[in-house]
Amino acid sequence: MSCRELVELVTDYLLGELDPAEHARFEAHLEECEGCRIYVDQMRRTVSVVGALHEDDVAPEARAALLGVFRDWKRG
Length: 76
What we know:
Elements: H1 3-14, H2 20-32, H3 34-51, H4 60-75
């Protein structure tokens, strides 16, 4: 498995949705690739932190700025 393939599958991996063969390939790549191990760890931490946030935790100014960025991104 390449690093690019791993990045494409990381969400399914974290959700436990990979089939057994793909899961084994994913794990084998992690054993060999320190960069991907770091990436998966960062994704785990991000999901944990973001999952703990509530809409009220974000300042109105920050929310407006983020929504503006997302609107512009969709247009681009």
